[in-house]
Amino acid sequence: MLKGSPALLLLSIAFAAYSSSTPRATNPNFDGKSWWEYVKVLAADNMEGRETGSEGLRRASAYIVEQLKKDGLQPAGVNGFYQPVKLISRQIDESASSLAVVRNDSKEPLTLEEDAFFSTRVQLAPEVNAPMVFVGYGLLPRLLLRS
Question: Which range, of 37-41, 51-55, 124-128, 142-146, averages the lowest pLDDT?
């Protein structure tokens, strides 16, 4: 699950609310003080990290909506200031998973978390049988070191 994304989205919304609601004639220079106040509130311990579906995320969302309303912004979309987002949850069963390099009928098992890892960010294929498979930039240096 992407833990940083909801926080980044919330901060972006708060910053957008600040920048779009600040009259240019009365405050032509951005000093960062108002923005920092938003950051301090959203990063406070009582927001509990704003994990997806958590009470902390609900508090952070309510705070941002309150700021948007204070700034006179109008909601858009299908559910006011709140918009439905479909989330997909994936979990890897490592006890039922394996990875091996096969060459000339010789099979070399790889150890999960040492030689390789599976990511929940993509739907994994149940089996890959190919002469070479690109598995991501993070694995390449490890392969070069082992050569």
Answer: 142-146
Indicate whether 122 belongs to any domain: yes
- Beta-carbon contacts of 32 under 8 Å, excluding residues fewer than 6 positions away, are none
Domain assignment present for 85: no
Residues found in the chain: 147
- Alpha helices in the chain, H assignment, sequence order: 4-21, 33-42, 55-70, 140-146
pTM flag (> 0.70): no
- Only one residue has tokens 């992407």, namely 2
The tally of domains found in the chain comes to 2
Residue 98 near residue 109, CB atoms below 8 Å: yes
Give the range of the structural domain holding residue 41, as residue numbers without chain letter. 4-70
